Amino acid sequence: MYKINKSTNSIEKLKESSFSDLSFNERDHLQEWIAKNPESLGEELLIIQKEYSGFYNTNERLDLLALDKESNLVVIENKLDDSGKDVVGQAIKYAAYCSRNTTEEIIKIYQEYLDSNNNGEDARESIQKFVQSEDEDELFLGQNEERIIIVANKYRPEVTSTVLWLLKQGHKIKCFKATPIRFEEHAFLNIE
């Protein structure tokens, strides 16, 4: 990424940084930025829960749970400067856990999220509006294959090879590179 200098008609390369160098952490920063701006992941997503831990017989929690415009559940797993080598397995496990949720359970998960933010919205109505479904009897959520999105600054080869293999097998998984950039006293985030 470059800064354009109009007066000299030139560009200046901006310095890529790391989240840790800028004192950003996963939960308070990266996760919140994505939750507030899910379109930063290249599509319209409705975040329906953060730090979701409602899985049967486990205390594990996924970072963000969303719905896409086709009513599919989307598991979003965030890592900061390094993806780690096990993030794909972790995300697959969360997608498997989520695959058991019915439409009513998904609505309940979202209502709990809305209530925790003192939003006052009705989850069912909000979801119907988002997926553009006018008949509440025809609202079917999470009926297709769950999708996975992984966000990190750098990806290990164990992750990229596994993701490429999963894509080849027809699974719906995406990786986004989140790069913090420092310029003077400002910080920017590039997601690609």
Q: Could you characterize what this model shows?
A:
- The chain is globular, with a radius of gyration of 18 Å.
- The protein contains 5 helices and 9 strands.
- It has helices at 26-36, 87-98, 103-116, 123-131, 157-168, and strands at residues 2-5, 10-13, 15-16, 45-52, 62-68, 73-78, 147-152, 173-183, 186-191.
- The strands form 2 sheets. Strands 3, 4, 5, 6, 7, 8 and 9 form a 7-stranded mixed sheet that branches. It has a two-stranded antiparallel ribbon with strand order 1-2.
- Helices cover 30% and strands 28% of the residues.
- It has 192 residues and is an alpha+beta fold.
- The longest helix has 14 residues, at 103-116.
Summarize the structure.
The protein has helices at residues 26-36, 87-98, 103-116, 123-131, 157-168; strands at 2-5, 10-13, 15-16, 45-52, 62-68, 73-78, 147-152, 173-183, 186-191.
Features:
single chain; alpha+beta; 30% helix; globular; seven-stranded mixed sheet; 5 helices; 192 residues
Biggest sheet record = 7 strands, mixed
Listing every helix as H and every strand as E from the N terminus to the C terminus, the arrangement reads EEEHEEEHHHEHEE
- Helix content range: 25-40%
Structural class: alpha+beta
Number of helices: 5
| Average pLDDT metric | 92
Topology, element by element:
Elements: E1 2-5, E2 10-13, E3 15-16, H1 26-36, E4 45-52, E5 62-68, E6 73-78, H2 87-98, H3 103-116, H4 123-131, E7 147-152, H5 157-168, E8 173-183, E9 186-191
Parallel strand pairs: 6-7, 7-8
Antiparallel strand pairs: 1-2, 3-8, 4-5, 5-6, 8-9
